[in-house]
């Protein structure tokens, strides 16, 4: 075999091996399932109003997962992944909600922001933030102290129908959190421009002191 042909065969083998390494095995997917199921249990415990719909979705996805494990070896991992995604993707809204809530709270306690705004300017921003936080907690944990400590009350309503219903309502609440963040961030003082180094050239068109013609 010529050197060029041997090199080509080697490259094809490397590419094939790389493609194989990029595909998850059934064992990898099973580990993902257990991690996703643990996340579902965590959110169900943390957010009592969402527990029933999370438990129901987990039950459905688990039945799909167990069925996928019976598939032939070639398609097993892919079918198992579908079940993992059926549970995992809807749960992402909780992660987004918690991240946005943390960012909003950080802004509300940002001294650079709160010390530069007057009470009259800060109050409407604070009220909008509290309303956004109340909307979200009324969906997830209306009877928890962290929710009842916020101004206002949670209006009674029907129980969440399913995970899709929860996602739609919580995504709307997350949008309100994001809008409250933007309003606060817009009032945050801009950092001062760095001072020019000593001895740097003056801007074009400027004159050094005492350089004006007499």
Briefly characterize the structure.
With 214 residues, the protein is mainly α.
Structural features:
214 residues, mainly alpha, 8 helices, disordered C terminus
Write a structural description.
There is one protein chain. The protein is an all-alpha fold and about 210 residues long. The chain is built from 8 helices and no strands. The C terminus is likely disordered.
Helix and strand arrangement:
Layout (H helix, E strand, L loop, with lengths): L2 H20 L3 H21 L4 H18 L4 H36 L2 H4 L4 H22 L4 H4 L14 H24 L28
Number of helices: 8
Rg, Cα atoms, Å: 28 Å
How far apart lie the N and C ends? Answer: 88 Å
Element order, helices and strands? HHHHHHHH
User: What helical percentage do the residues reach?
Assistant: 55-70%
Helix-strand makeup class? mainly alpha
Overall shape: flat
Give the amount of beta strand, in percent. Answer: under 5%
- Characterize the biggest β-sheet: none
Number of strands: 0
* Overall average residue pLDDT: 85
Tally of domains: 1
Could you name the ranges where pLDDT drops below 50 across 5 or more consecutive residues?
7-20, 207-214
